[in-house]
Each structure stands twice: as C-alpha cells, then as structure tokens.
Amino acid sequence: MNEHKTQPTEAMFSAIAARYDRCNHLFSLGIDRIWRKRLAQAIALTADESALDICCGTGDMAFALLKYSPVRQVVGIDCSERMIQLAQEKRMLKTPRRWMKDKELRLRVDDAAALRFEDTSFDAATCAFGLRNIPDRAAVFDQMIRALNPGGRIGICEFSLPRRPLLRNVYWAYVSQVMPFLGRVVVGNAEPLRYLARSIHHWHTHVRLEEELAAAGFIEIRPTPLTGGIATLTTAQKPQ
Ligand SMILES: C[S@@+](CC[C@H](N)C(=O)[O-])C[C@H]1O[C@@H](n2cnc3c(N)ncnc32)[C@H](O)[C@@H]1O
C-alpha cells in the first residue's frame, strides 16, 4: 500500500474510528442507514455476484450489501487499519444473523487509489461517504473500472447540498454551526465536524462527479438526490 499518500487521511480516521459509528448515526439522525440501504438496493447484486466496497470504514456499507441483497461475497477495503479492526469486530457480532448465512465478507487494509486486486475481479463496486476524502479521485476511478468485470456497476453515495435555497441554508447552518458545537459537547472535539463541513462545501463547489466518472470511462451515469439533496446516490456502469 502507498502509505506515504494515505498517511494523513489514515491518521485522521484512525483517531476518530472508535466514535465514528456513534457520531454518524447521531448527527444524521439515523438517516445514514437508509442511504446505505438505498445504495445496496440500487446496485441490486445477485446471488452469484461479488462486490468491492472501497473506503469501507467500520463496514456499514459492506454489511448493507450483505443484508439487502443475496450477494455471495463482499470485500471491504480501507486505508485505516483501526477502521478495518473495528469492521472485523462488527463482523464477529453479525455472523449469527440470518442474512450473513452462506455469505463471505473479506476485509483488508488497502489504498483505493492503488488497489491490490487482479483486473476484472468484481461485478460491482461501492463507496459510501469516502470519495470526499481522497484528492486523487481519477486514480480511484481508474482502479474501480480496472477491478470490475465488463458491464460491472458502481454506486457512490456522497453528501451534497440541497438545491432548494431554504433547505440548503437550514442544512448548511446545521452542518457548519450546529454539528461542530455538538461535536465539542458530545465527543469533546469539534475539529472532525469542521473538517466534514469544509469537505462537503469543497465537494459541492469544486467537484463534478458525473464528468469525472465519464472521463474515467463509465457510462449510464445517473445521480439521484436523497433526502432533499442532503446526499446524492450516483450509479454508473463499465461498458461491456
Ligand atoms: C467517512 S468514512 C466512510 C466509511 C463508510 N464507507 C461508511 O459508510 O460509513 C471514510 C473512510 O475512507 C477511508 N479512506 C480515506 N482515504 C482512503 C483511501 N485512499 N483508500 C482507502 N480508504 C480510504 C477512511 O479511512 C475512512 O474510513
């Protein structure tokens, strides 16, 4: 793995890993679970397919794929060793669940921009709330398209800002003011929430995801706003 490149991100996410899930569900009022379910349903994996979940963090997107589809195998990768450890602990807890039966979840440390998988290894690839943190997205898309079978699907879920001005203003006040305040009160540190607000703003103002996916060779690129545009689910396909 290219430790030099992922080191700052790895350090930041490892530092917040233990509180990550709690903050996620608390600050999104639990809606993050619904967004991952929507992504899993949009990808519509069948029983003979396998999927790669990049930036898997503590594993919630990988678990959503296993829970909401009959998929055979999911592989989750993340550059943070601590996140992967937590995902492994969660896997132990979830193994008895009915929806985990006869399915395989593999988890490993890897860099999404330099994946250590053979070409054409997966039928689908997902990324939930991870791309915002990676400056070299072109490298990530090259890796995703390389690792997919012809016709393979991708699904990306990212935060966005609502189009409607009133909702956007209210939501932006929540993200940029209320969340850092709650971060200080609830977890004793406002900085990760300030980072979240900065990264959402940067994503909204600078990143043209659909154009980047088209430049990487993906087709059938379809964005769908979720919860009034607070998040956007984008699906696309590798040509046959
Ligand atoms: C906001 S979390 C999202 C976690 C999870 N997908 C979810 O839905 O909750 C972003 C994750 O991306 C990981 N990450 C950031 N840059 C990465 C890279 N270059 N390669 C792999 N993982 C990366 C971080 O370690 C972190 O766990």
CATH first level: Alpha Beta
Give the helix tally: 8
Could you say what the CATH topology is called? Rossmann fold
Q: What is the level-2 CATH architecture name?
A: 3-Layer(aba) Sandwich
Largest sheet, spatial ordering of strands: 3-2-1-4-5-7-6
**Shape verdict:** globular
The main β sheet shows up as: 7 strands, mixed
The CATH H-level homologous superfamily: Vaccinia Virus protein VP39
Query: What helical percentage do the residues reach?
Result: 40-55%
Please describe what this structure looks like.
The chain has a single domain, classed as Rossmann fold, CATH 3.40.50. Helices cover 50% and strands 21% of the residues. The protein contains eight helices and seven strands. It has a seven-stranded mixed β-sheet with strand order 3-2-1-4-5-7-6, with helices on both faces. Strand 4, helix 5 and strand 5 form a beta-alpha-beta unit. Helix 1 packs across helix 4, helix 2 crosses helix 3 and helix 6 packs antiparallel against helix 7. The site of S-adenosylmethionine has 22 residues, from helix 1 and helix 3.
